TrEMBL record:
Membrane-related topology note: Lipid-anchor
The family this protein is said to belong to: Belongs to the rickettsiale 17 kDa surface antigen family.
A Gene Ontology term for the protein's cellular component: cell outer membrane
Record's keyword annotation contains Transferase: no
Organism: Phenylobacterium montanum
Protein name, entry field: 17 kDa surface antigen
UniProt signal peptide: 1-26
Pfam families from the UniProt entry: Rick_17kDa_Anti (PF05433)
Keywords assigned: Lipoprotein, Signal
Length: 97
């Protein structure tokens, strides 16, 4: 009986040791993924912000060109808003990490 208990104790110690090593490896993998992910997210946000500005300018110019007379301000504002949203989404989803 004593040998079974010592074998079980050795197996338990081995399992704890392997579990700790596995947890450490998992934490290292998580840190690497989080670091890569945060860098990628920063790039994605930058691309989305750039897309927003470019889309707003292009949409505003297009809205101004399409409208006539006193409605030019409204056309410019609507075009800028629509262009900003479209540019943001296109740039955000078009960015590859």
């Amino acid at each position: 009986m004593k040998s079974i208990q010592s074998i079980l104790a050795a197996l338990a110690a081995l399992a704890v040791g392997l579990g700790a090593g596995g947890a450490s490896q998992a934490q290292d993998t998580y840190r690497h993924h989080r670091h890569h992910h945060s860098g990628c997210e920063a790039e994605r946000r930058h691309a989305a912000n750039t897309g927003t500005v470019v889309g707003a300018v292009a949409g505003g110019l297009l809205g101004n060109a399409v409208t006539h007379g006193g409605g030019r301000l409204g056309g410019t504002l609507i075009g800028a808003g629509a262009g900003a949203v479209a540019g943001h989404e296109i740039a955000k989803h078009g960015h590859k990490c």
